[in-house]
């Protein structure tokens, strides 16, 4: 293969790798060792939202309340972060509805 051919293949490979890099919701590239999101048990989620979150609560406040607990795995926390839209929620039921329960 010629030097030009090698450069083309290398350029395409590098470009494709960049195009396939997962991107987090905040626009930053995610590491290959990113946590695999896993839907939590929604009854456990409902109990947590009722007991540990003061309402009204923003998305950030809700996710912070989940982050500070060992009740959920890193994958479950990642799932909640990926599925909870921005907003302010008046009750646990609003949060659960937004999560698609």
Structure characterization notes:
- The structure is a single chain.
- This protein is mainly alpha-helical and 101 residues long.
- It has 2 domains: 1-34; 35-101, no CATH class.
- Helix content is 53%, strand content 4%.
- The protein has 5 helices and 2 strands; from the N terminus they run ααβααβα.
- The chain has helices at residues 3-19, 42-52, 59-67, 74-83, 92-98, and strands spanning 57-58, 88-89.
- It starts with a helix and ends with a helix.
Question: What are the SSEs and their pairings?
Answer:
Layout: H1 3-19, H2 42-52, E1 57-58, H3 59-67, H4 74-83, E2 88-89, H5 92-98
Antiparallel strand pairs: 1-2
Helix pairs in contact: 2-5
Report the principal-axis shape: globular
Strand order of the largest sheet: 1-2
What's the end-to-end separation, in Å? 56 Å
**H-E order:** HHEHHEH
Mean pLDDT score, rounded? 78
Helix content range? 40-55%
Q: Which oligomeric form is depicted? A: single chain
Q: Return the domain count.
A: 2
Number of helices: 5
- Classify the beta-strand content into a percent band: under 5%
Total E-strand runs: 2
Question: How large is the radius of gyration?
Answer: 20 Å
Low-confidence spans: pLDDT under 50, at least 5 residues?
Answer: 9-21
Major sheet, described briefly? 2 strands, antiparallel
- Structural class comes to mainly alpha
């Amino acid at each position: 293969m010629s030097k030009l051919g090698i450069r083309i293949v290398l350029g395409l490979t590098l470009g494709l790798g960049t195009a396939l890099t997962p991107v987090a919701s905040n626009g930053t590239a995610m590491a290959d060792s990113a946590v695999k999101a896993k839907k939590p048990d929604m009854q456990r989620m409902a109990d947590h939202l009722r007991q540990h979150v003061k309402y009204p609560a923003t998305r950030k406040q809700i996710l912070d309340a989940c982050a500070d607990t060992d009740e959920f795995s890193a994958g479950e926390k990642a799932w909640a972060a990926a599925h909870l839209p921005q907003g302010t929620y008046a009750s646990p039921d609003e949060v659960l509805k937004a999560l698609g329960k």
